[in-house]
Input
Amino acid sequence: MQRTVMDLWVGLFVIVGIGALLFLALKVGNMGTYSAAQSYMLIGNFENIGGLKVRAPVKSAGVVVGRVTDIRLNTETFDAAVTMSIDSRYQFPKDTFASILTAGLLGEQYIGLAAGGDETSLKEGDKIMKTNSAIVLEDLIGRFLFNKAAEGDKD
Output
């Protein structure tokens, strides 16, 4: 009798552990939030997307309002064309500004939308005209070192 009770507790503990691992996997994989049932697509062109990936969140004021659904190279402008699926509950003005931002210790990148003040809203398939590319740490370090070297040449 004692052995079966112990086996029951061990089995319950294993099931709870597997559930916790599944929960963490969904959180890390950005699969736990946002449903694309009622959504519309927007496109933004960025010079550099850094480490942005498909399924990355699209946030406005810290709230997840959509997901990145596709990333392609625009062969005409040689920019990255990022397609975003935005929840239809959220309507953004035409002059909305899209930036690629970094969050968390792991450096997860996401798109941040800053709403403008235009009267007309973005519709299905519209392009976000105002975009700000990702900040790449290597570029910042290179510019800093170049500026320091230029200052040293003047002396």
The longest strand covers residues 63-74. The mean pLDDT is 85. The helical segments are 2-28, 137-154. The two ends are 86 Å apart (CA to CA).
